[in-house]
Specification:
2-enoyl-CoA Hydratase, Chain A, domain 1, about 260 residues
């Protein structure tokens, strides 16, 4: 099924117990806008209550997984509060009871990376790149990443990725624990699909239970962190540094933060 939104699409299909959700807005590198976040939240919530769906597989289109939040939206239609579509999506993905598999087929930026921290199995094409440029945009990290990244890789490596905001390759993503397996570019979808099928064949109730137990000691703290980061993120969206960074992106130039202390 294609969920046609006024600006960007989400393509979903269901087969063998697997709900595949594909971001499909290639002309904007699959940047996620409000309508896409709403559609994603709807699909994740539907998956949770639909018995026939046992696994959710997330992927992108063409050469891109997702370039993250639509930066034009940050200017024209910023999230107004923690009940806005992006937060509905973050709640849905971070509380999903069913296993999430991601196939990162290309560029992943911003929430395109932080959503992977909520997935259970992540496969990346060898050519995929990853970047969390929240600080470089005058913003702050989101989606629970300040809790999940240091847990996963230790403070120094998390700080390097978040404070410097540089792009890194699939090999590094594997080394720091964001990715389970790096696949040859042409083999990614077949491998991710096969893993999703293998997972869908497992006893579903036991899979859900194991997932819940894996998150038991930090689930509540994760929701608090997402909410606190969200409040600070909304605040930073109104900062002069963010205004300069977003203007620079639109004008296709490097931002200049030298006048801000
Ligand atoms: N929001 C809105 N538009 C975006 C976007 C985003 N996050 N990412 C890319 N686009 C748009 C570009 O503005 C461009 O639009 P145009 O053709 O109308 O000018 C189009 O998508 C193609 O992007 P382009 O930058 O030319 O592609 P690229 O292959 O050179 O680079 C990226 C791809 C993803 C590395 C680069 O676009 C980028 O850094 N985007 C911003 C990512 C980001 O900061 N996300 C938010 C994090 S909070």
């Amino acid at each position: 099924m294609t969920i046609n939104l006024s600006n960007g699409t989400i393509i979903t299909s269901e087969q063998d117990g697997i709900l595949t959700i594909r971001f499909d807005r290639p002309e904007k590198k699959n940047a996620l806008n409000r309508a896409m976040y709403s559609a994603l939240a709807d699909e994740l919530e539907r998956a949770d209550r639909t018995d026939s769906i046992r696994v959710i597989l997330l992927t992108g289109s063409q050469d891109c997984f997702s370039s993250g939040n639509d930066l034009a939206d940050f200017i024209m239609a910023p999230p107004e509060g923690t009940d806005s579509p992006v937060f509905r999506f973050l709640t849905a993905i971070s509380t999903a009871r069913k296993p999430l598999v991601a196939a990162v087929n290309g560029t992943a930026v911003g929430v395109g990376v932080t959503m992977l921290l909520h997935c259970d199995l992540v496969y990346a094409a060898a050519g995929a790149t990853f970047q969390m440029p929240f600080v470089s945009l005058g913003l702050c990290p989101e989606a629970g990443s300040t809790l999940l990244l240091p847990r996963m890789m230790g403070h120094q490596r998390a700080a390097e990725l978040l404070l410097m905001g540089e792009s890194f390759g699939a090999g590094t993503a594997r080394e720091v624990g964001i990715v389970n397996q790096v696949c040859k570019d042409g083999e990614l979808m077949a491998i991710a699909r096969a893993k999703a099928e293998q997972l869908a064949a497992q006893p579903a109730a036991s899979v859900r239970l194991a997932k819940a137990l894996l998150k038991r000691d930090y689930g509540a703290e994760l929701q608090e962190t997402i909410a606190e980061e969200g409040r600070l993120f909304l605040d930073r969206l109104g900062s002069p540094e963010a205004a300069e960074a977003l203007k620079a992106f639109m004008e296709k130039r490097k931002p200049d933060f030298s006048r801000f202390s």
